[in-house]
Design goal:
By secondary structure, the chain is of the alpha/beta class. It has one domain: Rossmann fold. It contains six helices and seven strands, in the order βααβββαβααββα. The two termini are 13 Å apart.
Length: 167
């Protein structure tokens, strides 16, 4: 039996959905019999999203240019994409930064107003990804096949969704 090429992705969020995924405990051993994990922030050192992924769970909203580039690559290279958790579906807590109305205000608030006397906004390229003006839910940027709500979804909900998707 060929295994499903499976991935998980973490964008702008707290990683709570991935922690809930790990709460599947012993069932992960059954899952690994059905899937080949080809990309994940959990226990994987793969740096580039691979081609020909069958199923991906994507956690978090799209808050910066790196997220935007990655989610576009993920969609291009994945058959079935699941918006995984409330941040991916609604922007949820990371989306609260949208109230500040601009990325410059966010940087000033984070690095200057809330800092001690030595506060400064990092200027070196690559230290802070270029922030988007708003954190967006995934479906506002790419097509999503399924939604798995929760903050985070429970291990049982994740298991039931994966069982249904894996057939």
């Amino acid at each position: 039996m060929d295994k499903i090429r499976f991935a998980t992705v973490w964008l702008t969020g707290c990683s709570g959905c991935h922690m809930s995924f790990l709460d599947l405990d012993e069932w992960l051993f059954e899952l690994i019999e059905k899937v080949d994990v080809v990309y994940s922030p959990v226990g994987s050192d793969v740096k580039q999203y691979p081609p020909n992924v069958d199923l991906v769970l994507v956690e978090g909203g799209i808050g910066n240019q790196d997220n935007l580039n990655l989610i576009q690559k993920v969609r291009q290279n994945t058959k079935t994409l699941v918006s995984f958790g409330d941040c991916a579906i609604t922007a949820n807590v990371p989306g609260m930064r949208n109230m500040l109305t601009s990325s410059q205000l966010i940087l000033e608030r984070s690095y200057l107003e809330l800092a001690d006397k030595s506060g400064q906004i990092p200027q070196e390229p690559g230290i802070i990804p270029l922030l988007l003006e708003q954190v967006l839910p995934i479906h506002q940027v790419i097509e999503v096949d399924f939604f798995l709500p929760g903050c985070p979804p429970s291990g049982g909900e994740i298991k039931n969704a994966l069982l249904a998707l894996l057939g």
